[in-house]
Each structure stands twice: as structure tokens, then as C-alpha cells.
């Protein structure tokens, strides 16, 4: 029996009532017990515990997949009863796609795209961790896939489902802080040598024996073959551009979410790396400063956004000097939208807004703008599952939104990686001033891992 929950007329009605685009899924049928049949692609560590603990454990968990049996052993001991386990998600989807309604993709960044699209092609709803993809062509292709396959999609920038970001967006759109021309965003990481980032002494790094339980070739997936290096796993692949996207990829999808949503920022005209600490070829820097230049639209003028990562001397960089805020680190906030009348500050994951100065904050707090954006119950996973069950509208970080956000982030990653200025033709999807870098806009995929060429 096909056990799949599809959005039909109800979803269109809900979406229309909340100003979200309605959509319909093509195949009928629903789970007999009203639960969603969920599979995990990536089942180890905290990244898989997050969806499990935030909604998925209450659904039907029907299959697990992971290339590292040792890393996921603890989770499997606690969660798995008689569900099948696979090393290769392609095999899992081929064998079980009729029994799977939805998948959560919690792989390293470079594998997000093929795993997500392989599920979508089979009519399976997808929740994919951030950043949505590893390159810009992949982000644009997943947007096409969302429109073509009509499945429920969500990227894992969890703050997008919170009340705090809605308050910030509503405050901006109500004109509380006036017209915004500058945005400052920051993160103190990466902590090189910590749990998630490491700087190898040489590139390529020395070869290490492949540990028992790891299917190394499957872990590489679409990336070019290379020897195993022990520092890649479980988390330090994030420092390697071939696999991860550094702090900007890790945190930009959270921290830049508020200004991108509030001001409806589309792709920038240009992105420039202004400062970058040295690093080995292919390794992220321990700190950088990147400037995005966004065009104006019919609602606002041009916007400049500066991103800082790594330890910074805030007395010298990220200067604001308005409304009592000295710099980008004021009040410990991660992002400041600086307007003509005041400022809105938010945290690394969006969160509750801070509004300056007091003469702007006080009337906002006493009489906040009318709630114009529907509130979400159950966080980002609950929002996704509700849409699949036909009890809620399309998720807010669906691929029509998150693909755009990811494209912005990945342009910054390219400017940072090559320590340069990138001028971007969004309509053509090409870098105009450094055409050689277009090889990174659409990276080659290894044979057997090609997806999306027909979309």
C-alpha cells in the first residue's frame, strides 16, 4: 500500500489565507494512522538528533541511511527497532520509495543536492539542512525541482519558523526604523582546532587508514576521489571548500535570514572580500570580511551588507556609530539592520529583535505592529510535517525562498574563497568579471552522482 500524505485543495486554501503560494501534490493516498513515513539520510550525531527530537520521532520512522556506521551507532541503538539500514541512499530510495513519504537530509554540504533531488524525483517530501546546496547551479536546480515535482520542501534554518524573526520583519516593514541602507552581520568562529574546524598542515593532507564502518567512497559521493584523511570526520570537513562552506555557509543561512526576508533581498550585483586571513589552498580562512552590494527595488533603495567572521577588533572594524551602537558586536548581537530612524538587531539564529534607540524601541514595545505573518507551531520540523499532513501551509523556508538565500550566501563564499570581487549577472547566472570562477558556480559531479541536468 502507498503510504503518502499529499497536499490537495485544503493546502491551497490554507496557503491563500496566509499569503503563501498554493500548490498541489499529484498522487493521492495517506498514512493509515495519520502519521508521515519518514526516512533519514544521515543518521549520526546531533545533526540527526535534532529532527528526531523535534518532531520526527512522533511519526513513522521507516528507514535509516548513513555511510558511517560507527558515527551513527549510538542513535541507531536508541532509535532503530526493525527498520532497514542502508549505506547508500540511492539504494534505499530505489527499494523503498513507495513506503517513504518524506526524508530528512543531514549529510555534509557537498551531498545535500544529490540526496535531496533523488528523493524529490520519486515524489518524496524533503527537509534539507543548511546550506541548501554546495554551489549556485544546484540551488537554482532545486528551485526548479520544487516547482516541477510539487513536493513539500524546507531548508533547516530553524529561526525562520520562530516568532522573533517575524517581529523583526514586521517592525521593518511597518517603518519602525525607517529606510535601511546598511546591514552588519558577524560570527566569532571558526575556532580552528576545535570540534568543527581544523587547518591541516599540508594540502592535500596526508592519507589515513579508512576506519572500520566507514564507506569512504559513498561519503565522497559527488566529490572527486581522494584518499581519506582522519581530520575530515566527523565534523571538520566544514573547513574544506570541496565539502563545506565555512562560517558563511554554516551561519549565513541563519544570521542573514532576517534582512533577506525583511527587505526581500535578491541576488547581489557584486560581492567583495575586503579582508581575509591566509589559509592553505582549499581551506577556509580563520577570519574574513565580505561586502555584499544589493540593488534597490520598488520598495527600497540599494543595500550594502557586511559579513565578518573570526576574531575581530570591534573598535576598528564594523563601525556603526549610530543610535548608541558602536559597532557590529553591540549588545552581543549577530546582525544589525541600520535604518534612518533606528536599528533592528538579531541573534545568530534570528531570534527576538533588539530595537534602538529607546525613543524608537519604547513605542514599538508598547504597541507593536499588527501581526501580518502567520505564526508557526512546532518549529521548522513541525511546520514541514504539518504541510505534508495537509494541516498547515507551505513551509516558510521552502526552496522558493531558501534557494535564493543560499545563492546569496554562496556568492559570498566564492568571494571569500578566492579573495576577490565578484560581479554577478543574476539573470544569466554567471560571474562576469572573473569568468574562470564560473567553474565553481556549477561544479562537476562524479559519475553516478549526476542529478538535475534535465530540469
Task: Describe the overall structure.
It contains 13 helices and 17 strands. The strands form three sheets. The protein has a nine-stranded mixed beta sheet. The protein has two domains: 9-160 and 377-402, 3-Layer(aba) Sandwich (Rossmann fold), CATH 3.40.50; 165-194 and 241-373 and 406-439, Dihydrodipicolinate Reductase, domain 2, CATH 3.30.360. It has 455 residues and is α/β, with parallel strands linked by helices. Helix 6 packs antiparallel against helix 13 (399-418) and helix 9 packs antiparallel against helix 13 (399-418). Residues 1-30 have low confidence and may be disordered. Helix content is 28%, strand content 18%. The two termini are 30 Å apart.
Features of this protein?
single chain; Rossmann fold; 455 residues; six-stranded parallel beta sheet; disordered N terminus; 2 domains; Dihydrodipicolinate Reductase, domain 2; 13 helices; alpha/beta; nine-stranded mixed beta sheet
Briefly say what this structure is:
The protein has 455 residues and is α/β, with parallel strands linked by helices. It is built from 13 helices and 17 strands.
* Biggest sheet: strand arrangement: 15-14-13-7-10-9-8-16-17
User: Which class do the helix and strand fractions yield?
Assistant: alpha/beta
Helix content: 25-40%
Radius of gyration (Å)? 22 Å
> Which regions contain 5 or more consecutive residues with pLDDT less than 50?
1-30
- CATH topology tier name of the largest domain: Dihydrodipicolinate Reductase, domain 2
Q: What string gives the helices and strands in order?
A: HEHEHEHEHEHEHEHHHEEEEEEEEHHHEE
Amino acid at each position: 500500500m502507498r503510504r503518502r500524505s499529499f497536499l490537495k485543495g485544503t493546502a491551497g486554501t490554507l496557503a491563500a489565507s496566509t499569503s503563501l503560494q498554493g500548490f498541489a501534490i499529484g498522487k493521492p493516498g495517506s498514512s493509515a494512522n495519520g502519521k508521515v513515513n519518514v526516512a533519514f539520510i544521515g543518521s549520526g550525531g546531533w545533526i540527526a538528533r535534532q529532527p528526531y527530537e523535534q518532531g520526527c520521532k512522533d511519526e513513522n520512522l521507516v528507514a535509516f541511511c548513513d555511510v558511517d556506521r560507527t558515527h551513527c551507532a549510538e542513535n541507531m541503538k536508541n532509535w532503530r527497532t526493525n527498520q532497514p539500514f542502508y549505506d547508500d541512499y540511492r539504494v534505499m530510495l530505489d527499494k523503498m520509495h513507495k513506503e517513504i513519504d518524506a526524508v530528512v537530509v543531514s549529510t555534509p554540504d557537498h551531498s545535500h543536492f544529490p540526496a535531496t533531488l533523488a528523493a524529490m524525483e520519486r515524489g518524496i517530501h524533503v527537509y534539507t539542512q543548511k546550506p541548501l546546496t554546495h554551489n549556485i547551479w544546484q540551488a537554482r536546480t532545486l528551485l526548479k525541482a520544487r516547482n516541477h515535482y510539487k513536493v513539500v520542501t524546507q531548508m533547516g534554518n530553524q529561526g525562520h519558523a520562530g516568532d522573533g524573526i517575524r517581529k523583526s520583519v514586521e517592525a521593518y516593514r511597518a517603518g519602525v526604523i525607517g529606510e535601511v541602507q546598511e546591514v552588519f552581520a558577524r560570527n566569532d568562529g571558526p575556532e580552528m582546532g576545535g570540534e568543527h574546524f581544523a587547518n591541516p598542515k599540508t594540502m592535500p593532507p596526508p592519507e589515513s587508514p579508512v576506519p572500520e564502518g566507514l564507506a569512504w567512497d559513498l561519503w565522497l559521493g559527488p566529490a572527486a576521489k581522494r584518499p581519506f584523511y582522519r581530520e575530515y570526520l566527523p565534523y571538520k570537513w566544514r573547513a574544506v571548500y570541496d565539502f563545506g562552506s565555512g562560517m558563511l555557509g554554516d551561519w549565513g543561512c541563519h544570521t542573514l535570514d532576517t534582512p533577506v526576508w525583511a527587505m526581500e533581498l535578491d541576488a547581489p550585483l557584486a560581492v567583495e572580500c575586503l579582508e581575509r586571513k591566509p589559509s592553505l589552498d582549499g581551506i577556509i580562512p580563520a577570519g574574513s570580511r565580505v561586502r555584499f552590494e544589493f540593488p534597490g527595488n520598488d520598495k527600497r533603495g540599494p543595500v550594502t551588507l557586511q559579513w565578518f567572521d573570526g576574531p575581530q577588533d570591534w573598535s576598528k572594524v564594523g563601525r556603526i556609530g549610530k543610535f548608541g551602537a558602536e559597532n557590529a558586536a553591540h549588545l552581543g548581537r549577530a546582525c544589525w539592520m541600520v535604518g534612518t530612524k533606528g536599528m533592528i538587531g538579531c541573534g545568530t539564529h534570528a531570534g527576538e529583535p533588539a530595537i534602538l534607540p529607546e525613543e524608537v524601541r519604547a513605542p514599538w514595545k508598547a504597541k507593536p505592529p499588527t501581526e501580518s505573518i502567520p505564526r508557526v507551531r512546532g518549529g521548522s520540523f513541525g511546520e514541514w510535517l504539518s504541510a505534508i499532513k495537509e494541516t498547515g501551509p507551505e513551509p516558510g523556508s521552502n526552496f522558493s525562498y531558501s534557494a535564493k538565500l543560499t545563492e546569496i550566501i554562496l556568492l559570498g563564499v566564492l568571494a571569500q574563497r578566492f579573495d576577490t570581487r565578484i560581479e554577478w549577472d543574476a539573470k544569466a547566472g554567471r560571474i562576469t568579471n572573473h569568468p574562470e570562477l564560473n567553474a565553481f558556480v556549477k561544479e562537476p559531479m562524479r559519475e553516478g552522482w549526476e542529478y538535475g541536468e534535465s530540469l
